[in-house]
Amino acid sequence: MRVAWIIAGDETGGVAQAVRGLSAAVRAHGIEPAFISLADGQFCGEMRRRGEAVEVLGDYHLPTLAGSLFGRAATAAKIGALSRRIRPALATAIRRARADTVHVLWPNLMPLAGAAAREVGVLSIWEMPNILGRYPFAINRRITQWRLRHYGVVPLANSRYTASTLGCRPVQPIVMHLGADGTRFRPDAPSRLSRQDLGIPADAAVFAIAARLTPEKGQLVLLQAIAALPPGHHGIHLLLIGGPLADNEFGEEVKALAAQLGMGERVHLVGHSRTPERFYAAVDVAVNARIDPEPYGLSVVEAMLCAKPVLVHALGGPAETVIDGVTGWHVKEPTVEAFAAGILRALADRPRWAELGAAARARALEHFTLEQQAAFYVKLLRQQLAGMAEL
Fold first, then answer.
1. CA dist 201 to 17, 86, 120, 242, 280, Å?
2. In the Cβ-directed half-sphere of 136, how many Cα atoms lie within 13 Å?
3. What is the per-residue pLDDT across 276-303, written as a single tens digit (0 to 9) for each?
4. I need a labelling partner for 33 at 20 to 30 A (CA). Which of 200, 206, 235, 294 fits?
5. Are 283 and 216 contacting, i.e. CB atoms less than 8 angstroms apart?
6. Closest Cα partner for 37 from 80, 79, 94?
7. pLDDT in tens, 111-133
8. In terms of DSSP H, where are the helices of 97-205?
9. What predicted TM-score, i.e. pTM, was given to this entire model?
């Protein structure tokens, strides 16, 4: 079988990681990936350096659906017009790739990929990278469901929560939890960084967020929660693994607040890293503090594979990957007060951190590795393709 990933060419973050991970993992199951990009870009270059062939259709850039309902409607019209121009070239590229299946992630590319796949007569998969936003009269969900049915696209949701935002009528989404590389993310990862390397005292309690430095990731909330702890808990250090926004404003805001709260020496910003696994040896508790619903939270699974218990805002994917009191702790609300209570709960469990971390790794190895994700995906493809053959 051959699967053609339809990409924009400039993917970053979680979407890029999802494409890299699954497309590589399916090779062990006899799937040959192909890549068709609307435009050339940084991600295309990265995939070529990995030895992948990428066919670039031109210099097409579909706008992103965002903003108000009326703004989205105008953007959708632009996307539709441009997609109609691109579709013949995409259909030809799919045939040239001899693909049995088309796989797409970006929502604005899904109708285009679905239409081209239907024209060629191959299976179309939409891997939902995010939840569907809520709009009046559920208009977003209704339009998306219509497109899925019209083009015959099979939706894969990265969590039960993400699936719930799409609904189940007329098209039922299939939940496929994402996987991380268990051979890369492990307690004995090579080139591990020590606390001394990071300027952190050996006896400190270290909490860490591995995420982009952006307001919705909750770095400021966690920082304020640590500062709000009662006297006697001033030895906690916060490690922030992830790059700032391009203009660096938010990174400067984090530093300024840390200084204002008297925590300048206890907050460590290490910037973007392509090897986040190196930092977990210096971490006691990983945190996902995202203040809006987290569709999945791959960094949670990566920390679990490194045998770290995880404190999470339990709305979205982390509520499904982390078992409260067994592999970490749930925080019900993304507030300073709720996270302060969660931190105190984690500190009370300090004698159990190693036990919780071991349970976290065991759960991740059992359910959330790339190997499990790839096996699930390939089984699904075979079932869907067999169903198409019977029609």
1. 33, 56, 60, 21, 15
2. 4
3. 999 999 999 999 999 999 999 999 999 9
4. 294
5. no
6. 94
7. 999 999 999 999 999 999 999 98
8. 110-120, 139-151, 160-166, 195-198
9. 0.93
